[in-house]
Amino acid sequence: MEEQQSTIQSRISYILEREGLTVSAFSQRSGISWQTLKNLINGRNLPSYDALVRIVQSVDWVDANWLLLGTEEVKEDNTQAFVSLLTRQEKDIERLTKSNEILYRDNSELTKKLLNLTQRSVSSDEK
User: Fold this and answer.
1) Which of 1, 42, 58, 92 has its CB 3.0 to 4.6 Å from that of 30, i.e. a possible disulfide?
2) Roughly how many angstroms between the first and final C-alpha of the chain, as a whole number?
3) Residue 97, phi-psi category: left (phi > 0), alpha (psi -120 to 50), beta (remainder)
4) How confident is the model at residue 97 (pLDDT cuts 50, 70, 90)?
């Protein structure tokens, strides 16, 4: 970002500027009424939770932390973060699958031993 946007109003204005959209066009894209959007930009109102969610969902490069707090840079591409998350989840799934296979095998072995002990116990009781 070229300049620091210190308020949520300035960050919303920056989004419209960067997207090359008018208030009316962004209103249609986001589903936020024209008047509400105009009041947000002018600082008359603070955005509701619904408005914040709609803004983040309407513009793929906007990070929610940046929009709310101004602390994160605008995300150009979240692909790398998404791939990293998927990779971690895939490794977790592989690890849990292996653990599950070991537990299943151990359970089968214990079941056989218990069955064997039960049969021995029944046999010794019959004698």
Assistant:
1) 58
2) 88
3) alpha
4) confident
CA distance 123 to 127: 7
Contact 1, 14 (CB under 8 A): yes
**Position 20 pLDDT exceeds 80:** yes
> How far apart (Å, rounded) are the C-alpha atoms in residues 105 and 74?
49
Instruction: Return the amino acid letter for 34.
Output: W
Taking only the tens place, the pLDDT of each residue in 26-67 is 999 999 999 999 999 999 999 999 999 999 999 989 988 889
Got the DSSP string for the chain?
--S---SHHHHHHHHHHHHT--HHHHHHHHT--HHHHHHHHHTSSPPPHHHHHHHHHH-TT--HHHHHHS-SPPPS--HHHHHHHHHHHHHHHHHHHHHHHHHHHHHHHHHHHHHHHHHHHHHHHH-
CA pair distance 55, 47, nearest whole angstrom: 10
